[in-house]
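Pipeline run #58 for the internal structure catalog. This entry was flagged by the ingest filter as a single-chain record with no existing model, so it goes straight to prediction. Upstream metadata was stripped on purpose; only the residue string is passed forward. Reviewer on rotation: M.T. Logging verbosity set to normal.
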Amino acid sequence: MCRKLNAYEAELTVTHVNGEEIVFIYGLADTDSSEFDRTATVVEAVIDESLSVGPLQRMYKGCEVNRFRHGSVIVIFDIYLTRESIPEDRITTAFTQALRGNMLGTNQTLTVIPSSFQVQEKVESAEDPWYNHPFYIALLCAGGVAAVAVCAISVYCCKFRKTGRNKPVSVYNTAESTPDLRGNSPGPIELNFVVTNTSDRPMDRSFAPLVKME
């Protein structure tokens, strides 16, 4: 069965690494740099060796360097234990017992300022609800814009179709006036016009009398 690890954030000032004086340089501030990686690897190895024995040996599960800070070189790192919560002074006691003067480690060594060691339980902040995540909000906004665009296109298409169906009939003026037999009054007026087809169905385009006005 997996056991949840409890994290403690620790801070320690280091003056020498493997006997060589260490000074803070720009590379130590960049977690992707070779200087950071090389120095963090040595620090983690020495802390592992020091805390995996003694009072914490049954609960110690490792450490991880988070960053370096100026002030000689201050190391900020996490210590992982299997116990959910223990007093910080127990970790300080384990650190003190691992010291040889002002040095930690055997194969690789760190020269430190013992009084600079500080540790406190790390409180993880609660995660925001999924619906407050920026990615979800961006997707929601994009979906809303897309929905509005689809509605606008649908309304436009409906109006366009209605306009096509109600298109006015083109009328060509072919009015003719026919006198009666006595020549006194005009005869019936016959209007002939052509209907322009706006549908897909074939239509008879021949001239045909539609209305006669007496």
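catalog note: Confidence is low (pLDDT under 50) at residues 125-132, 169-177, 210-214.
catalog note: The first helix runs from residue 34 to 51.
status: ready for reviewer M.T.
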